[in-house]
Specification:
Shape: elongated
GO molecular function: DNA binding
Largest sheet: 2 strands, antiparallel
Structural class: mainly alpha
InterPro entries: Homeodomain-like_sf, RNaseH_sf, Tc3_transposase_DNA-bd_dom, Transposase_Tc1-like, WH-like_DNA-bd_sf
Protein name: Transposase Tc1-like domain-containing protein
Number of helices: 8
Strand order of the largest sheet: 1-2
Radius of gyration: 33 Å
Strand content: under 5%
Number of strands: 2
Subcellular location: Nucleus
Pfam family, one: HTH_Tnp_Tc3_1
Length: 188
């Protein structure tokens, strides 16, 4: 095998699986067409013998050198329109839980999706589940009541403060049964 037409590829280039580029596929096919064996081509380019034989077999069957496998793995269950529907469901009720979102989505969809798929999609769309911040309603009468309550103990003596029960309470739970509401928010 002559070194003029084929260049060597370091072993580090072989690390990890990647789809071959059209150029790499063309070089493999060209080397095989020139009469080089599968082992020779594999040694020079650093691809496995299986890859070399598969690429050349695909070329002989179809006559094309381009990659047929544009995307590896399973196809996406949800399309762009489905993402739009999920966004609409989330905005309609931000306090809905994932099983409820999945049920609402599956009511009108032609494909049925799991709760885990809904969760992954919602997170990938940029939303996350957060506890809502508790903010008191600050109206003018409410502000006046709060101010009067805060001013009551202003003139208390040390003896008056002895009659106040001080506590350092903490809330502990073993399981998530406190029924706290969560809302869906966009990433900031």
């Amino acid at each position: 095998m002559s070194d003029k037409c084929i260049r060597s590829v370091p072993a580090s280039a072989m690390a990890g699986y990647q789809d071959l580029s059209d150029f790499e596929r063309g070089v493999i096919i060209g080397a095989r067409e020139m009469g080089h064996s599968i082992s020779e081509v594999a040694m020079k380019f650093g691809f496995s013998r299986t890859t070399i034989s598969r690429v050349y077999r695909e070329y002989r069957v179809s006559g094309k050198t381009s990659n047929f496998r544009h995307r590896c793995g399973r196809k996406k269950t949800l399309k762009e329109l489905d993402h739009w529907r999920q966004t609409r469901i989330l905005k309609r009720d931000r306090r809905s839980i994932l099983p409820q979102i999945a049920t609402d989505f599956n009511d009108g969809a032609s494909t049925s999706v799991s709760v885990r798929t809904v969760q992954r999609t919602v997170i990938n769309m940029g939303s996350q589940s957060r506890r809502p911040t508790r903010v008191p309603l600050l109206t003018a009468p409410y502000n006046a009541l709060r101010l009067s309550w805060a001013r009551q103990p202003y003139h208390w003596t040390a003896n008056d403060w002895k009659h106040v029960a001080w506590s350092d309470e903490s809330h502990f739970q073993l399981y998530r049964t406190d029924a706290r509401v969560r809302v869906w928010r966009q990433h900031q």
